[in-house]
Design a protein that fits this description.
By secondary structure, this protein is mainly α. The chain is built from 13 helices and 2 strands; from the N terminus they run αββαααααααααααα.
Length: 290
């Protein structure tokens, strides 16, 4: 038997070196700084795990974590069903599907720092939406009403990222063989039965990608929340990322490093848990099919 030639792996060395420089080295540096009280980079004082103990015992951290998880849960509960519903409608359209997909994909290319500015121009009293609310006598105050601020953030995030869920769902639905639909039609299956037993299982793979991407991104929201109301009113939208930003802006770099490591571990743990659940589900499906 001819020995396997693995020299092609050397082609990955440049990418590996880049990841080492831009990813691993900064992470190690931040991890080291998280055990120090930093006045300057030349004046470090060892404090051990004090920053970590202070963070995990802080009611402020618990509140920010709860708000971040709640925001991710709300975003997923809105965007996933809506994205799947739109994708199902697109599969039934005979004309104009490309145009609809292009329109839904346009917000994905808008720079993040421009999105809150666009929405602020819409919802302020002189903006289009603000004037519409005023003419309809609908009270709307995103600056001092927490519910209104949350509504703005969820709607804005949905406008920005719904296209991703639609595109992934539509791609998964387009890959389903027509033979499944013909068999369902012969059996007299309802539309709900077709979705429950054919479409949803077939697109579960792409949906898992959409869920993971949207959870991580919504959990890390910063620019949009900061520009809309800077964590207000009364800390109602003070997410973990905004807490970290405040630590950095106050020049408490040791505490900020520890907070960023806790934040990093939360995201990695969520991604690992999600991946483990999906792998077990995939293994169970393979056992059933075999």
């Amino acid at each position: 038997m001819k020995p396997r030639d693995n020299r092609a792996w050397f082609l990955l060395l440049p990418a590996g070196l880049i990841m080492l420089v831009v990813g691993v080295v900064p992470l190690v540096a931040v991890f080291n700084y998280s055990f120090h009280d930093i006045f300057t980079l030349q004046d470090l004082h060892w404090v051990g795990s004090d920053w970590y103990r202070e963070i995990v015992r802080s009611p402020r951290f618990h509140g920010s974590l709860g708000r971040s998880l709640l925001f991710s849960a709300v975003v997923l509960s809105v965007q996933l069903p809506l994205g799947i519903a739109i994708a199902l409608k697109l599969t039934r359209m005979k004309h104009g599907r490309t145009l609809v997909i292009m329109l839904l994909a346009l917000p994905l290319v808008v720079p993040w720092n421009m999105i809150p500015m666009m929405w602020l121009n819409l919802i302020r009293p002189t903006g289009l939406v603000g004037q519409a609310f005023a003419s309809l006598a609908i009270p709307f105050d995103y600056k001092f009403n927490a519910i209104h601020t949350w509504v703005v953030l969820v709607v804005m995030d949905t406008w920005h990222w719904l296209g991703l869920v639609v595109i992934l769902s539509f791609a998964g639905l387009s890959g389903i063989s027509p033979a499944f639909y013909r068999a369902a039609a012969i059996d007299g299956a309802t539309s709900w039965a077709v979705f429950r037993h054919i479409q949803l299982p077939k697109i579960s793979g792409v949906l898992s990608i959409a869920i993971l991407l949207r959870f991580v991104d919504s959990f890390m929201i910063y620019t949009e929340a900061f520009r809309i109301n800077a964590g207000g009113p009364n800390f109602a939208t003070m997410f973990l990322s905004l807490d970290l930003g405040e630590e950095i802006n106050s020049f408490t770099y040791g505490a900020a490093a520890a907070r960023s490591m806790v934040y990093f571990l939360l995201v990695i743990s969520a991604a690992w848990t999600f991946r483990t659940i999906m792998d077990r589900r995939k293994g169970a499906l393979q056992e059933i099919n075999s």
